What we know:
By secondary structure, the chain is an alpha+beta fold. It is built from five helices and seven strands. It has helices spanning 2-23, 36-53, 74-90, 144-150, 156-166, and strands at residues 32-35, 57-62, 69-72, 96-103, 113-122, 170-176, 180-191. Strands 1, 2, 3, 4, 5, 6 and 7 form a seven-stranded mixed sheet that branches. Helix 1 (2-23) runs parallel beside helix 5 (156-166), helix 2 runs parallel beside helix 3 and helix 3 runs antiparallel to helix 5 (156-166). The chain is globular and about 40 Å long.
Amino acid sequence: KVRASAGHLMGIINYILDLSRIEAGKIELEAAPFELEPLLRETADILATRAFENGNELVLSIQPGLPRRLAGDVLRLRQVLVNLGGNAVKFTKGGTVSLSAARDEGAPRTPGTEALRFEVRDTGIGIAPEALPRLFGTFQQAETSTSRVYGGTGLGLNISRRLVRLMGGDIDVRSVPGQGSVFGFTVALATGGDGG
């Protein structure tokens, strides 16, 4: 219990530190090379224990033909995916959570970059339509009862949206109460030059 409480406290502190850095303009994004498939697999590994405890199946999907190597801030990308995936796992019991990456067909084509859309889809409790507009606010959750039942600080989605916007994209959500949610975001990443 002490270890779990300490971990929870560290999570809150890290969220607040991230929020203060973002608001102060102190976060600088990196543009380091990384591989797409390992990014999704590492994210799934981080989520696997909690997913198993909740009886969930984790599914990964990468659209064929995407560049294997990209360049961007992989730590921040993973942070957003882990946060969205962690929420999906937390609010889903005995269902499915899927992480996917695909080409954003609606984005303009720019040489040397690839606009990717990442999605985290779950079959969990879903979110009421009236709660969606406030979902990304600071210290906000869908309902007061949600924090009592499931825990959480109400900071993760706000920070995730800010990070994605720093990367030139945005997060959107679709949800049906009792059926699940889909959180998606699009970011433009430099291609690694190997053409796939």
